[in-house]
Amino acid sequence: MKSIKTLALIILPLFIFTACSPKLYTFKDISKAKMQKMEFSDLQGFEEDNLTLALDVFNKGCKRSKRKELFKNVCEKASTAKDAKAFFKTNFTPYKLLSKDKKDEGTITGYYEPLLQGSLKKTNIYKYPIYKVPKDMFFVDFSSEYPELKKYRLRGKIVKNKIVPYDTREEIIKKDKLEVILYVDNKVDLFFLHIQGSGKVELRDGSYVNISYANQNGRKYKSVGKFMIKKGYIGNGIDASMQGMKKWFEKNPDLTDITLNHNQSFIFFAKAKRGATGSLGVELVAQRNLAVDRKYIPLGMPVFIQTKNPINKTKVNQVMIAADTGGAIKGDIRADFFYGFGPIAEAHAGRMKEKGKLILLIPNK
Question: Residue 112 in contact with residue 356, Cβ under 8 Å?
Fold first, then answer.
């Protein structure tokens, strides 16, 4: 009798734990991550969000995302929707992203559209070039013949009849032979333009030139901030923010080049008619668009984000639309919050590194 009671005490907690464990879902055509199904009533702040604005931004993304089968039907409905709250609740089901170890929190950073000072001609002040895509850079893509190589799209150049990796950041800067769009006055600001992916340059006559991402040299992105922390140049916290890094560069000009060149990745740009435009191909909306890892979140997907404002630490609970990607935005619960243009956007983006949860609003079939 005693052994039966003992067995019951062992089995009962296991039964309770199993019964209470949430069911995990996998949608291989949507995300590599496992997810937990939610109800809209579970999403704190959803009812208070400006869902009309969220619907407008979703509609904007539909200009491109409706080409995908996943969004085709729901984009058609969005174009005629009158009640934003009813639209989201009727046409989507929330699924919370989980990490490999089944945690539901990841890292949310921020980005913005920077403003640089520049000139169409090189001078003693405006001497740092913004380059166009090099004519000697080739793209190797065998995916049409070998679908298994789809993710391997290499960039290189031909040297003695062989394709070799394209130049590093340091090599590109040293050779100084590429076609230039314009010149700016600050190499550190230019580096952060590379990180942000797009921006505006104010010319000496007061006019503006929109600069957008065109391509990349194929080298893997390496975090300069992490490198600086490792070397003891800056500490964690506010020192590791963009603002903290800029202060260090101002005080240590002799170490600036070697530090920036730790990141061998280099971005090439083009003039643009529009402001900051994401990988989805639509102009980004401040505080309503995210950059994501497409392995886990498809572009065009509505995402309910739960995080904090980096400055006043108030809660941020709102529907955003995945519309961009980034070399540093990798991982299951990982996103970059687009803050827009101007000094306030820069202040927030430069300090943004908060924990957060990402809930995909997956269209119902």
Answer: no
